[in-house]
C-alpha cells in the first residue's frame, strides 16, 4: 500500500519526519517498507514563462527563448522542441539543476548560442501523459496549472509529496486505505482523526426506477450498493486527484475511472463503474456464472467462467467478474451517458479463487479477498458521487440502490483487564486499555468493547490484548525470564546418537550434505530399481512444481548419487559425503508416511575403494557401539556392482548395504570414476547398539603371536576362514588379523594363500610353546576338514 | 720402572685423547688396561721389586690405572655426545613441509547454525521434538487457526498428497506445536527444527524445501514479557551481548498478540545500509503468544496455562551469517562450497 503523506494530511495532522513517521507506524503495527520523496531527484527546476522566442540563426530546428524565471533578468535557453510559444509557462531547468536519473544540467553553448538551462518535457521530469493528459509526449510540457514564473516546479507538478510504502498484514484490509492508515496514524501519534461525511446534492430522478438489483447468491455477495450518474462528461481528472493517484501508484485514466480508484484508495472499498446503457433489461443480477459462460474482461481477454465464479450480470449475460474485473461489454467509453457505480461486498475466498483461476489478481480482488467491511459500501458510493459533483463529471441520480442479503452482526467483547494483563505480563488499568481502544474507534460501553465493523480480525480477548500492547509499544512491555516450573531440557538418546554419528562421519573425512526429500520417479529407473520393487510406491505429490520433485523418496541413494554426479561435473577430484537422510515409506493404513532416517555415505576419487568405505563403516559402527557386524556378499542388488556389494547385518538383522555402484548406474549419473555408497538404517543401527562397556582386567601374562598361511580355494571367503579359526581354537585365541592374500605361482591355479596373524594368551599363566602349538594344530585341523585349507 | 709407568701414562693419555671413535678407544683400553695390556705387563713385574719400592710403585701404578680409566670414560662420553649431535643433525627435517594430511569432513553450514541454536535452547531447558513432514492439513492448518479457504491452503501454495486436501507436506514446523501439546506433558519447553515445503520455484532466495526451527513454551503464567525475555536471550547468545533487538507487531493466525523480532543491523548499527536494505534492522523471526483458541483446541485450560511460540527460518539465518548470496548453494552440495565451513 502506497500512502501519500499529502493525502494523509487531509485526515490527520502528523508533524513527524519521514523517518520518525515510518518508525512510529512500524512499531504500532503498520510496517513501513520505504518512504520516497517524489521530487527528490529534481533540483533547481522552476516555472518559466517564455517572453520571446526566435529561431536559432545556425539551426533549422532550434529556438532561442528568453525565459522569465522570476528573476530581474530573463535567462536565455535554447530548445529543440517545436511546441513552445511566446507566453507559455514551461518547466525550466536552470544552470546547475538536477533531473530524475541523476541528469545534471549546466550552462552550455549550442551552435554558438549560450543556453543557461533546459526546457523540460514530461519524460525528462519522470512523468507521463497519464499524469498530464493535456501535455504532448514529444515536446515541452506547457503548463496549464496555476503557477507563476520562478515557482519551484515540484509543487506545481505534485512532486512535493512523500510516499510511504506499507506492508500490510492480511488481517488488516482496512489499512489498505488512506482512511484506515490515517486512523492508525491518529492512534499512533494520539492526534485527532478528521473524517468527512460525503454529501451528495443529487439532481432528481430515481435510481430505483432505472435499475433493479437482485442478489441471487447471497453466500457470495452480502451487500450490493449502487448509485447512478447521468449526463456523464468524460474528461481528465483535475491535477489534485491525478497527483494523489500518481503518488499511490495508480495511473490516471479519466474522471469516472479515476473516481472509482480514488475512492478505493481512500475508503478501501473497491468500486466499479460501468455503462448503464449496456445493462440489458435494466436489471443487475449477482449470480454464479452459468456453465460455459464467457466474458471478455476490460483487459481484452476472453475469459471462460466456471460455475463457482460470481458474476455481475444483466438479464442475459455477465457484464463483470464480481470483485475482479469488469466486462468490456460495459466499459466506460467517451460517449457513455449514464454510469452505474457499484460498491459491493463480495465473499473473499470466492473472489480470491476466481482471480487465481482466471490468472488476474487486481487491486480490487486483492482487497476483497481479505474480507471487507460490509458497512463501507454506502459511504464509499456516496463519496464517489460527491466527487462526481465536485468534478462536474455528471449528474447524480437521486436514490441509492442498497440490497443487503446478509446482515453483518456487530461484535462486542468484554474487556477483562486482568486477563489481558496476565497475557502481556503488564499491569495496565482498564481505563488505559479503553483509552487505547478508543483511539482506534472501538466503542466502549462500561466493560464492553464494541468492535468496529472494519475490524473483522478482532474477535477474542487476545486480539484486544494485541491492540493495547501495540499502541503501548511492544518494546516498552516488560522483559522477563520465564519462572520455570522446571521443564527438563536436553537431547534424547536418539538425538545424542545423531550428533555422535555426524561427528564420526566427519572425523573420517566425510562431509555433510543436505538433499531434497522429493525426487523424480524416474530416478528409481536411474538406480535400476526393479519394476516390481515395493519401494517404487512413493508418497506422491498431486501438485508438484515439476516431475523432478514429485515423489517423496523411498531411498536416499538417488539423492546421494545425484550429488556425487554433480560434484564430478564440477570437477571436484575426490569427494566423501554423508547425510542423515529421511526416506518416506507410505503407510498401509493411513496417508502419512513412515519417515525413517538413513545414514547415506558416498564417495569417489583419491584412494577410495570398497575397503576404504567398508573401513569407514566399520569404524562408524565401532564408534556407535554396534558390535558384531557381518558383511555378506550381495550379488543381486541392481544398483551395485554384483561382485562388490555386501549386506551389513548384525546377528541376522539387516542394517544396510555397502558397495561400489553398478557401472551402468554410475554411467547414468555421468560418473567417469567408480562411485561407492553405503546406506544404513539409522533406527536399526540404534537398536543394535551393545551394552555400555564394563572394565575387564588387563592381561597379566604375555601373549604369543603366531602367523599361519593357508592355501584354500579362491572362493573361500576370509570371513569363513576367520570363523573357522575362531571355532577351531581351544580358548587361548585372543585376536585374528588378516595380513596377506596371495594368488599366483607357486600357488596352484584356483587356489589362494591367506595369511593371518594369531594372538594367543592365557589368563592363568604364561603360555608354553607346547600349549601354543596345540592350539594352532587344532585350528589347522578344523581349517583343513571344513574348508580344505592347508598350511602352506 | 717408575719412569716406565710415567711413559705409559703420557703415551696412553695422548692416544686416548686422540681416539676418534669408540672402537679405537676400546682398542686403547685393551692395549693398556687389558690382561695383556702394557700397564698390566708392568704390574706383573712388581714382584721383582724391593719391599720399599713396591708400595711406592704400586701407588703410582694405581694412579696411572685410574687416570687411564678416567680418561677413557671421559673420551667415551665426549665421543658419544659428538656422535649423538651428528645423528641429530643428520635426522633434522624441514619442519615447513606440510603434515601428512588427515582429511576432516565438514558440517553443513545450515547444521552449524542449527547446532548453535539448539545449544542455546538446551541451555535454557528446552528439549527437541520431532514430527512428520507428510502431515495432516488438520495439524498444519485447521488446528492452527487457519481455516478452510485461507490462501495458504491453496493448491498453488501447498503441496498436497490427497485429492481431498487432507494430507500435505507441512508448510511450517508449527504443526509440531499441536502435536507436542497433544502428546507431551505440561509444562512444555520445546524446539522443533525440520524441513518444510512450499510451492516456490527455485531461485536465489526461494526453494520448495527449506528448514525452520519452531519453538513452543506452555506453562502456568507465561506472558508476552517472558516471550520477549527468552528471545532476547537467544539473540544475545547467537549474535553477542551487544546486539539490539526490537519487537514489532505482526500477524500470524495461530498467535495473538503476534510479533516479529528484528535485530539491529550489525553492519550499520541501525543507520541504514545495503545489508539491511536501508531499514537499519534485520528481520530475524516471527513469534507470539499461542492463540488461546489453539491451546483450547489441544485441551489446555487457558485459565491456568498460557504460552508463546516462535519460528525461525534457518536458511536465511545461515545465509546472513556466512554471507551466502544464493540459496541454491545450500542444496547443491558442491564440495568446494561445503569445504569452506
Describe the protein:
The complex is a heterodimer of chains A (792) and B (341). Chain A has 792 residues and is of the alpha+beta class. Chain A folds into 6 domains: 2-38 and 162-189, Phenylalanyl-tRNA Synthetase, Chain B, domain 1, CATH 3.30.56.10; 43-157, OB fold (Dihydrolipoamide Acetyltransferase, E2P) (Beta Barrel); 207-404, Phenylalanyl-tRNA Synthetase, Chain B, domain 3; 411-475, Phenylalanyl-tRNA Synthetase, Chain B, domain 1 (2-Layer Sandwich); 493-687, Bira Bifunctional Protein, Domain 2 (BirA Bifunctional Protein, domain 2), CATH 3.30.930.10; 704-791, Alpha-Beta Plaits. Helices cover 26% and strands 28% of the residues of chain A. Chain A has a 7-stranded mixed beta sheet with strand order 27-30-31-35-34-33-32, sandwiched between helices. In chain A, strands 3, 4, 5, 6, 7 and 10 form a 6-stranded antiparallel beta sheet that branches. In chain A, strand 8 (108-110) and strand 9 (113-115) form a beta hairpin. In chain B, a hairpin with a 2-residue loop joins strand 6 and strand 7. Chain B has helices at 2-18, 22-33, 38-44, 53-91, 109-123, 137-140, 175-183, 224-239, 292-297, 314-322, 328-332, 335-338, and strands at residues 127-128, 134-136, 167-169, 188-197, 209-220, 245-252, 255-264, 281-290, 305-313. In chain B, helix 5 crosses helix 10. Chain B folds into 2 domains: 2-91; 109-338, Bira Bifunctional Protein, Domain 2 (BirA Bifunctional Protein, domain 2). Chain B has 341 residues and is α+β, with helices and mostly antiparallel strands. The model of chain B has no long low-confidence stretch (mean pLDDT 91). Chain B has a 7-stranded mixed beta sheet, sandwiched between helices. In chain B, strands 2-3 form a two-stranded antiparallel ribbon. In chain B, 43% of the residues are buried. The interface between A and B is large, with 88 and 84 residues.
Amino acid at each position: 500500500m502506497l500512502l501519500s503523506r499529502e493525502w494523509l494530511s487531509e485526515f490527520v495532522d502528523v508533524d513527524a519526519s519521514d523517518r520518525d513517521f515510518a518508525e512510529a507506524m512500524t512499531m504500532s503495527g503498520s510496517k513501513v517498507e520505504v518512504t520516497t520523496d517524489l521530487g527528490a531527484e529534481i533540483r533547481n527546476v522552476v516555472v518559466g514563462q517564455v517572453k520571446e522566442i526566435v529561431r536559432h540563426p545556425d539551426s533549422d530546428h532550434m529556438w532561442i527563448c528568453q525565459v522569465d524565471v522570476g528573476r530581474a533578468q530573463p535567462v536565455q535557453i535554447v530548445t529543440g522542441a517545436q511546441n513552445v510559444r511566446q507566453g507559455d509557462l514551461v518547466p525550466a531547468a536552470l544552470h546547475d539543476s538536477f533531473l530524475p536519473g541523476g541528469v545534471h544540467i549546466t550552462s552550455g553553448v549550442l551552435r554558438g548560442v549560450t543556453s543557461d538551462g533546459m526546457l523540460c518535457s514530461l519524460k525528462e521530469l519522470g512523468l507521463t501523459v497519464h499524469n498530464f493528459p493535456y501535455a504532448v509526449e514529444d515536446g515541452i510540457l506547457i503548463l496549464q496549472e496555476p503557477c507563476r514564473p520562478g515557482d519551484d516546479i515540484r509543487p506545481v507538478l505534485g512532486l512535493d509529496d512523500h510516499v510511504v510504502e506499507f506492508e500490510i498484514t492480511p488481517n488488516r484490509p482496512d489499512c489498505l486505505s488512506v482512511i484506515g492508515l490515517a486512523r492508525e496514524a491518529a492512534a499512533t501519534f494520539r492526534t485527532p482523526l478528521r473524517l468527512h461525511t460525503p454529501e451528495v446534492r443529487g439532481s432528481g430522478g430515481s435510481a430505483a426506477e432505472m435499475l433493479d438489483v437482485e442478489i441471487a447468491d447471497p453466500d457470495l455477495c452480502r451487500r450490493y450498493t449502487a448509485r447512478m450518474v447521468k449526463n456523464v462528461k468524460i474528461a481528465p481528472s483535475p491535477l489534485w486527484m491525478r497527483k494523489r493517484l500518481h503518488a499511490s501508484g495508480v495511473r490516471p485514466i479519466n474522471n469516472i475511472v479515476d473516481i472509482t480508484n480514488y475512492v478505493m484508495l481512500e475508503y478501501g472499498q473497491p468500486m466499479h463503474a460501468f455503462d448503464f446503457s449496456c445493462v440489458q433489461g435494466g436489471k443487475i443480477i449477482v449470480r454464479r456464472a452459468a456453465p460455459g459462460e464467457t466474458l471478455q474482461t476490460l483487459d481484452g481477454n476472453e475469459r471462460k467462467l466456471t460455475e463457482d465464479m460470481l458474476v455481475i450480470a444483466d438479464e442475459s449475460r455477465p457484464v463483470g467478474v464480481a470483485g475482479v474485473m469488469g466486462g468490456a461489454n460495459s466499459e466506460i467509453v467517451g460517449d457513455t451517458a449514464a454510469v452505474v457505480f457499484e460498491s459491493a461486498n463480495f465473499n473473499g475466498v470466492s473472489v480470491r479463487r476466481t482471480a487465481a483461476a482466471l490468472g488476474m489478481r487486481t487491486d480490487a480482488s486483492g482487497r476483497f479477498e481479505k474480507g471487507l467491511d460490509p458497512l463501507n459500501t454506502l459511504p464509499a458510493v456516496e463519496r464517489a458521487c460527491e466527487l462526481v459533483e465536485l468534478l462536474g463529471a455528471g449528474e447524480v441520480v437521486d436514490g441509492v440502490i442498497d440490497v443487503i442479503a446478509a446482515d453483518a452482526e456487530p461484535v462486542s467483547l468484554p474487556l477483562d483487564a486482568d486477563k489481558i494483563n496476565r497475557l502481556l505480563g503488564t499491569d495496565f488499568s482498564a481505563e488505559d486499555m479503553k483509552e487505547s481502544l478508543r483511539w482506534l474507534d472501538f466503542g466502549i460501553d462500561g466493560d464492553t468493547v464494541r468492535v468496529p465493523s472494519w475490524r473483522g480480525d478482532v474477535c477474542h480477548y487476545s486480539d484486544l490484548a494485541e491492540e493495547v500492547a501495540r499502541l503501548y509499544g511492544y518494546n516498552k512491555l516488560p522483559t522477563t525470564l520465564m519462572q520455570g516450573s522446571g521443564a527438563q531440557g536436553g537431547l534424547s538418546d536418539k538425538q545424542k546418537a545423531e550428533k555422535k554419528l555426524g561427528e564420526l562421519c566427519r572425523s573420517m573425512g566425510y562431509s555433510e550434505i543436505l538433499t531434497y526429500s522429493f525426487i523424480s520417479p524416474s530416478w528409481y529407473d536411474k538406480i535400476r530399481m526393479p519394476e516390481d520393487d515395493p519401494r517404487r510406491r512413493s508418497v506422491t505429490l498431486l501438485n508438484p512444481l515439476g516431475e523432478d520433485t514429485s515423489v517423496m523418496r523411498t531411498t536416499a541413494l538417488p539423492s546421494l548419487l545425484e550429488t556425487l554426479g554433480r560434484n564430478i561435473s564440477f570437477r571436484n577430484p575426490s569427494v566423501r559425503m554423508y547425510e542423515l537422510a529421511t526416506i518416506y515409506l507410505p503407510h498401509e493404513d493411513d496417508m502419512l508416511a513412515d519417515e525413517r532416517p538413513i545414514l547415506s555415505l558416498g564417495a569417489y576419487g583419491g584412494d577410495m575403494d570398497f575397503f576404504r568405505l567398508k573401513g569407514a563403516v566399520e569404524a562408524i559402527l565401532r564408534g556407535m557401539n554396534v558390535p558384531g557386524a557381518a558383511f555378506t556378499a550381495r550379488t543381486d542388488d541392481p544398483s551395485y556392482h554384483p561382485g562388490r556389494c555386501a549386506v551389513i547385518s548384525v546377528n541376522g538383522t539387516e542394517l544396510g548395504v555397502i558397495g561400489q555402484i553398478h557401472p551402468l548406474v554410475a554411467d547414468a549419473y555421468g560418473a567417469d570414476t567408480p562411485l561407492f555408497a553405503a546406506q544404513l538404517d539409522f533406527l536399526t543401527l540404534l537398536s543394535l547398539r551393545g551394552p555400555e562397556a564394563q572394565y575387564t582386567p588387563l592381561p597379566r601374562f604375555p601373549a604369543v603371536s603366531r602367523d599361519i598361511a593357508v592355501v584354500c580355494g579362491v572362493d573361500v571367503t576370509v570371513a569363513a576362514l576367520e570363523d573357522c579359526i575362531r571355532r577351531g581354537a581351544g580358548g587361548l585365541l585372543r585376536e585374528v588379523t588378516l595380513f596377506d592374500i596371495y594368488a599366483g605361482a607357486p600357488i596352484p591355479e584356483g587356489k589362494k594363500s591367506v595369511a593371518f596373524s594369531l594372538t594367543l594368551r592365557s589368563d592363568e599363566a604364561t603360555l608354553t610353546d607346547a600349549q601354543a602349538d596345540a592350539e594352532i594344530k587344532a585350528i589347522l585341523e578344523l581349517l583343513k576338514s571344513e574348508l580344505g585349507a592347508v598350511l602352506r | 720402572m717408575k719412569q716406565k709407568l710415567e711413559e705409559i701414562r703420557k703415551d696412553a693419555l695422548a692416544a686416548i685423547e686422540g681416539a676418534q671413535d669408540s672402537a679405537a678407544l676400546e682398542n686403547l683400553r685393551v692395549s693398556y688396561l687389558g690382561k695383556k695390556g702394557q700397564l698390566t705387563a708392568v704390574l706383573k713385574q712388581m714382584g721383582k721389586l724391593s719391599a720399599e719400592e713396591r708400595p711406592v710403585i704400586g701407588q703410582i701404578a694405581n694412579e696411572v690405572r685410574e687416570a687411564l680409566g678416567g680418561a677413557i670414560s671421559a673420551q667415551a662420553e665426549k665421543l658419544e655426545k659428538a656422535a649423538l649431535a651428528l645423528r641429530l643433525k643428520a635426522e633434522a627435517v624441514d619442519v615447513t613441509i606440510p603434515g601428512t594430511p588427515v582429511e576432516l569432513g565438514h558440517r553443513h553450514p545450515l547444521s552449524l547454525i542449527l547446532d548453535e541454536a539448539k545449544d542455546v535452547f538446551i541451555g535454557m531447558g528446552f528439549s527437541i521434538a520431532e514430527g512428520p513432514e507428510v502431515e495432516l492439513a488438520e495439524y498444519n492448518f485447521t488446528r492452527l487457526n487457519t481455516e478452510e479457504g485461507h490462501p495458504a491452503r491453496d493448491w498453488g501454495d501447498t503441496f498436497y498428497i490427497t485429492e481431498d486436501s487432507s494430507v500435505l507436506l507441512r508448510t511450517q514446523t508449527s504443526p509440531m506445536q499441536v502435536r507436542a501439546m497433544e502428546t507431551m506433558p505440561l509444562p512444555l519447553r520445546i524446539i522443533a527444527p525440520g524441513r518444510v515445503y512450499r510451492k516456490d520455484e527455485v531461485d536465489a532466495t526461494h526453494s520448495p524445501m527449506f528448514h525452520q526451527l519452531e519453538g513452543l513454551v506452555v506453562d502456568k503464567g507465561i506472558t508476552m514479557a517472558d516471550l520477549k525475555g527468552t528471545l532476547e536471550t537467544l539473540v544475545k547468545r547467537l549474535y553477542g551481548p551487544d546486539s539490539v533487538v526490537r519487537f514489532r507487531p505482526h500477524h500470524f493466525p495461530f498467535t495473538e498478540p503476534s510479533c516479529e523480532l528484528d535485530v539491529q543491523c550489525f553492519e550499520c548499527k541501525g543507520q541504514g545500509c545495503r545489508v539491511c536494505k536501508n531499514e537499519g534492522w534485520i528481520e530475524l523471526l516471527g513469534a507470539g503468544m499461542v492463540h488461546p483458541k489453539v491451546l483450547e483446541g489441544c485441551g489446555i485450560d487457558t485459565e491456568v496455562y498460557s504460552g508463546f511460540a516462535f519460528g525461525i527460518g534457518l536458511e536465511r539465518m545461515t545465509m546472513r551469517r556466512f554471507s551466502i548470496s544464493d540459496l541454491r548453494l545450500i542444496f547443491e552440495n558442491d564440495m568446494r562450497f561445503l569445504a569452506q565451513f
